Protein: Aminotransferase class I/classII large domain-containing protein
Amino acid sequence: MGHPRLVKVLSKLYTPFLRCDPHRYATADTVLQRDSFAPTREIDPMNEIIVSVGAYGSLFAAISCLINPGDEVIIMDPSFDCYTPMTLGAGGVPVYVALRPTPDARTSNDWKLDLKELESKVTRKTKMIILNTPHNPLGKVFTQEELEMVADLCIRHNLVCVSDEVYEWLVFPPNKHIKIASLPGMWSRTLTIGSAGKTFSVTGWKLGWTVGPEKFIHGMQLHQQNTVYTCPTPTQEAVARSLEEETTLLSTGKSYFHEMCDIIEPKGKTMVKRVNQIGMRALQPMGGYFLVADVALWPIPKDQLENDPALTYDVVVNNWLIKHKGVATIPMSVFYSDGNKHLGSTYLRFCFFKEDSTLEKAYKALEQ
Structure:
């Protein structure tokens, strides 16, 4: 379950997302009212929340508990790299559907999910779909229409939705973070995952949580009891106190959650401008602290690149950057399934959540 103080404050934090007038959520001003869309209900902290060893632990428990051998899990390419091995570890079968950029894509939200392709992936063996918003690595924030499309699919085919929302507080205006669990008919089939590490920028603390219906949370409790057993009490107490304090500041605009966006968003805009100036084609991220850039047309001395046919171009460029510029990125192809690696083979993921002085050193190295 988790430390009583922590699960209670989490229930207070998340309950308002499921309580607001459905006609008001799209235009409400406060964070707690901004995107709820469901009948009034209270979250039971003892039975509808579980605290885990990081969001990794939450994902692992959720997938392990709900997936049986042979069950199919729909995963969106590109995806965070633990979804596939966790699915395989549970005996599940990953089934991939690709997010694809529009021809004139300029932002991360210009990468779209095709309904027909998504529908084509559903079979009688499909059990789960994994959603990630804001998305890592793209920085995409799924819109209401996109979430309704996924929700409709889940309801019609009786699917469970595991919604990885660890970057929920890093959404840049005018985008809105909408919890898919708040859409009609989705609470009973959704597990929403959050992270203290991402929420408070303390990733080494390894504390995450899952909010969802008791029928799912109970299974996760049994799983955790027989794996990691519990989470460190001092860490849970620290996170509980932090959430209590920040929750009281949400409506004032002075919360750390607001300040984080104010600090990070300009860094992302600056990075887009600077990497575009040297010939890359960067996507403006709508959330999170990662940026994806196409390096296909970036002029690089070809005689300095590795000539290994086993390596995709993004890996070759990343290796060159490390060796010749001292700048490390992550090749996008590593976030793709084998069948879709070609879709990410000219993209790199940059992180802009760094000190400005560090970022400036990287820009100057790239410009030389």
The mean pLDDT is 90. The two ends are 53 Å apart (CA to CA). Residues 136 and 327 are 20 Å apart (CA to CA).
